[in-house]
Design brief:
It is built from 13 helices and 22 strands. It folds into 3 domains: 184 residues, FAD/NAD(P)-binding domain, CATH 3.50.50.60; 140 residues, FAD/NAD(P)-binding domain, CATH 3.50.50; 55 residues, no CATH class. Bound molecules: flavin-adenine dinucleotide.
Length: 444
């Protein structure tokens, strides 16, 4: 079976893209590595599918119109003449190689947490803000009893209020940036103001203190986290004064990084986003620089679920038009995209990562947890003549482990004074050698 459009990613962007294209009469396959549709924003347990709001509407628009292929992890995408072959590992425990072919491809693979190393971040009990949120939303699991939420960005609010609402004792929210810049930069839509007010009231209701201009600069404990060092920071995040806060869990996150493995594999052009991290370059129709390949959602720049959905709708319509199906132009959607993009970019400017975090590191601080590479070895490699993050990787191995630099890549680039580079991963998902050698099955 060859589809008109294969969509990779079943989050807000991918679901909207698949729905719009299927509604225009295209044969669509919607592929996702997770057990069910929803992505990060609509993540939910099997037993509790959201019955109200945007998810059921998107779900209904996709159901029966597109072929949904869940538990399909895409490890690579290749061009085959005028088709695109999407190579997946399908299944739960006993995964089988499988290929889905399409005339057009929409990449909506989302983002992952942006992390910064600090002493003790490898202790059990320290997890990313997104990880804590995913556990809560996807499995109704509260990550700990007494939790500190820290980092930067508006995402800390839903994480802290979600945890407090689920019964955790949230000791505080520590936002590294001062809030003065936000009002000046971001002109939030009334819905966003209402959303933020809702989180603030929830934190008040649970007596969760919010500390701006403060950060967790170290985590402590023997076999697990017992307390953190919180510092009041200057404008560049250099510590001014410190104190300790007891907790058994730390949910820490410094925003998100677009997931670019697949578009980079295909040769799609990227450009630095407003926060310096690479994003896929797209035109107003969400076309990438590679003919037949489109991108939507966080992959084109971190902007949240609303923007992801709007971009998905626009991309699905563009694919339909490019394949000669009539789809009415949607100026209102394009205007909404511009407005949401402007707001998202203003937020990214208002919540920057300041350089002072480098001063939090001690020589023994692990920069790469997968390969247990301490900061001292990164400095050693630099002194041995490594001039960029790639040379550091070759000499000291940060980024050569399980996550292939997804967690430490950003920090290593910053330590070398470089702008973060697009990831070069020919294999986007772990695969068994046997499956690599095996001939993939065709999808029905
Ligand atoms: C852990 C985490 C939690 C978040 N929680 C929230 C939240 O609570 N509220 C909020 O407003 N924003 C949250 N965000 C921000 C989130 O990025 C956006 O809100 C929104 O979900 C983006 O939509 P999207 O469609 O671009 O990507 P996503 O929703 O991330 O969807 C991308 C989908 O692509 C799939 N995928 C990725 N790579 C592959 C592959 N190689 N093969 C197959 N499938 C693949 C993933 O399984 C995922 O389902 C969270 C982000 C993260 C990383």
């Amino acid at each position: 079976m060859t589809y008109d459009l294969v969509v990779i990613g079943g989050g807000p962007a991918g679901m909207a893209g698949a729905a719009a294209a299927a509604l225009a009469g295209l044969r669509v396959a919607l592929v996702d590595g997770g057990p069910r549709l929803g992505g990060q924003y609509f993540r939910h347990p099997h037993s509790a599918e959201p019955l109200r709001g945007r998810f059921p509407r998107l779900r209904a628009a996709v159901a029966g119109r597109a072929t949904v292929l869940a538990r399909h992890r895409v490890w690579t995408v290749q061009r085959e003449d005028d088709l695109l072959a999407v190579h997946c590992l399908a299944g739960e425990r006993d995964e089988r190689p499988r290929t889905v072919r399409g005339r057009r491809l929409l990449i909506a693979t989302g983002a992952h947490d942006r992390s910064l190393p600090f002493p003790g971040w490898d202790l059990p009990g320290v997890l990313t803000a997104g990880g804590a949120q995913a556990l809560l939303k996807g499995d109704r699991v509260v990550a700990g009893r007494r939790i500190v939420v820290a980092g930067t960005g508006p995402f800390l609010l839903p994480v802290a209020s979600g945890l407090a609402g689920a019964g955790a004792d949230v000791a505080g929210v520590y936002e590294a940036n001062r809030l003065t810049g936000i009002a000046r930069r971001a002109r939030p839509a009334p819905a966003k103001v209402a959303e933020a007010t809702g989180y603030a009231l929830e934190l008040l209701r649970h007596r969760v203190p919010f500390h701006a201009g403060q950060a967790v600069i170290a985590a402590h404990g023997d076999t697990g986290l017992t307390h953190v060092t919180v510092a009041r920071l200057d404008r560049d995040w250099r510590p001014l004064a410190t104190r300790t806060v007891e907790c058994d869990t730390l949910a820490v996150g410094y925003g998100f990084l677009p997931q670019l493995d697949l578009p980079v594999q295909l040769g799609c052009a990227t450009r630095p986003g407003v926060d310096g991290s690479p994003v896929v370059e797209v035109d107003a129709g969400l076309r990438t620089s590679v003919p037949g390949v489109y991108a939507a959602g966080e992959a084109t720049g971190v902007g949240g679920a609303d923007l992801a959905e709007v971009e998905g709708l626009l991309a699905g319509r563009t694919v339909a038009m490019d394949l000669g199906r009539t789809a009415r132009p949607a100026p209102a959607l394009a205007r909404r995209r511009r407005r949401l993009t402007a707001f998202a970019e203003a937020l990214l400017r208002a919540y920057p990562v300041r350089d002072g975090w480098r001063g939090w590191l001690s020589p023994g601080t692990l920069v790469c947890r997968c390969e247990e590479v301490p900061y001292a070895r990164v400095l050693e490699a630099r002194d041995l003549g490594a001039l960029d993050s790639r040379a550091i990787k070759l000499l000291a191995r940060p980024g050569m482990g399980w996550c292939q630099g997804r967690v430490c890549g950003y920090a290593v680039a910053c330590l070398m004074g470089e702008a973060p580079q697009p990831p070069r991963r020919p294999i986007a998902q772990p695969i068994r050698l046997g499956d690599l050698a095996d001939q993939p099955e065709e999808t029905p």
